[in-house]
Specification:
The chain has about 325 residues and is of the alpha/beta class. The chain is about 35% helix and about 20% strand. It contains ten helices and 13 strands. The protein has a five-stranded mixed β-sheet with strand order 3-2-1-4-8. The protein has a five-stranded mixed β-sheet with strand order 11-10-9-12-13, sandwiched between helices. Helix 3 packs across helix 10 and helix 6 packs across helix 7. Bound molecules: zinc ion (ZN).
């Protein structure tokens, strides 16, 4: 590697639980990786200090001269303004309101800083270095506590009029559906996110259903159960969980199908915890999508799982500088 050139960038993925920082070269190789807890509960100032600390530590850990670094890309939860570099609001980061994150980091590091929505950054990571490498029309779903999304059109992230596009988790899939965190009823997130699935199970416990296999008999007990166990017992025909899991996959299929008929992408990439289910998720999901979209839109469509795991966001953010 030629260290006289500024051929390295820093990518940061700011999450409610962890901050991931990577130093990446122009081939998408990670030179240095660091993951730190966010401690979001300690408030706005502490979280900002934590981001700065993580980046500094990663530079020190890499043994690289800061002069080789071209800039910092950071993926943050939104809504935010990419151009102004301001995070307006972040539900998982208490106290975060109108934070000029780009300016704060530029002043601290004296480097160019690019801000992006975290889900957009993750999808961009997969587009550049993962499952979607070289794919120019791509839709990505990040399936975690909530559901985020990213849309790549003709090789570019689609932001919408004021950076609010691709909130795929908040498309309405059922007008009479459950209340979502966003205030709307029947959003995809209310069915197919980890939170949605657990809430649906809680509702069924209240109605008197039980799961002897999971020892689920109180609504509080749902908090400690992993998504993996829920899917496992659902497949064994567990009464409490099987309908909820089936419903989660069906509604995800509806959400994917909607995007496929609107945008006719070449690929839909799925990311996040639920994708650990692999083919057990993909097979019924593809079936659901196929049932609902134009055959011509399905014919060449790939529905696949991301390859970069929890590094997708940071890698994507780092690549925004190129
Ligand atoms: Zn919603």
């Amino acid at each position: 590697m030629d260290n006289t050139k500024k051929d390295l960038t820093i990518g940061v993925d700011l999450g409610g639980t962890n901050i991931v920082s990577v130093i990446v070269n122009s081939q998408g190789e990670i030179i240095s990786y660091l993951k730190n807890p966010t401690f979001a509960g300690r408030g706005k100032e502490a979280t900002i200090r934590r981001i700065i600390e993580t980046i500094h530590k990663n530079i020190v850990q890499s043994n690289l001269a800061p002069s080789n670094i071209r800039g910092i890309g950071i993926g943050a939860p939104g809504p935010l303004d990419v151009e102004k570099g301001v995070v307006y609001f972040a539900p998982n980061l208490p106290g975060w309101e109108d934070i000029p994150l780009k300016k704060i980091l530029e002043e601290e590091f004296n480097l160019k800083v690019v801000l992006e929505n975290d889900a957009n950054a993750a999808v961009w990571g997969e587009r550049c270095w993962g499952a979607g490498k070289g794919i120019n029309n791509l839709v990505g779903f990040t399936l975690g506590t909530g559901i985020g999304g990213g849309i790549i059109i003709e090789g570019k992230i689609y932001h919408g009029h004021n950076y609010g596009a691709a909130e795929l988790g908040h498309m309405t899939v059922n007008k009479d559906g459950p209340l979502c965190n966003c205030g709307n009823y029947g959003c995809l997130e209310a069915y197919s996110s980890a939170t949605g699935i657990k809430n649906r199970i809680r509702e069924r416990i209240k109605k008197g259903l039980r799961s002897p296999l999971l020892n689920l008999d109180k609504t509080e007990s749902v908090d400690t159960i992993s998504l993996k166990s829920i899917f496992e017992v659902a497949r064994q025909g567990d009464e409490l969980t099987s309908e909820v899991v089936e419903e989660a996959i069906t509604y995800l299929g509806i959400g994917v199908a909607n995007m496929v008929n609107i945008l006719n992408p070449e690929m839909v990439v799925l990311m996040g915890g639920i994708t650990n289910e692999g083919d057990k998720l993909l097979i019924p999901l593809r079936k659901e999508v196929k049932k609902r979209v134009f055959p011509t839109n399905y014919k060449f469509l790939k529905i696949t799982i991301g390859e970069l795991g929890d590094k997708a966001g940071a890698l994507g953010a780092a690549t925004l500088l190129w």
